[in-house]
Amino acid sequence: MAVSIHLHFRAVAGGEIRDDHAWLAEFMWAAWEVHAEEYAAGVTDSIDKAWDSVNELYTAAEGLGVEGDEPWRLPVYGGRPVRYGGDAERYDPPLMVMDAADVSRAAEFLAEVSFDELWSVAGTRLGGGGEHEALFRQEYLQYHESLRGFYGRAAAAGHVVVKAVWA
Predict the structure, then answer these.
(1) Cα 20–chain centre separation
(2) 0.85 cut: is pTM over it?
(3) Nearest to 50 by CA among 2, 102, 6, 19
(4) What DSSP character marks residue 122?
(5) Are 121 and 63 in contact (CB under 8 A)?
């Protein structure tokens, strides 16, 4: 699979990973090479270069009275950065790991938030409002539904989520 710019999400049991950048980079690369199969199995997801815009859609929840400690920050940028070690390769991707508790919080947020309400607040900034609004809305709805399903499955399994930026 050719790599352009993607944010790659992979759910995994916490005990199956190491807190080691080089190891996680290799793990994520192997997962990326079988992305289609893992996507079909429900353990991976990805967003193309639009992930910052998807995050902007979720930050619209800040003004909608969503309860909790800013759960809208979790689906895209949630997690802790994994520090590069001395054995990291120059081209290893930036990585983050979300613990199982934050995966559950992200899943709850995505299950409870109204896409229509988010779009009504942020849609115009994300390309909506013009002649192609229906296309933009559908694109963001697909991202939202995909992430909602991914995080829901990961939370139900008690998994952590590893994120890699492929460029």
Answers:
(1) 20
(2) yes
(3) 6
(4) H
(5) yes
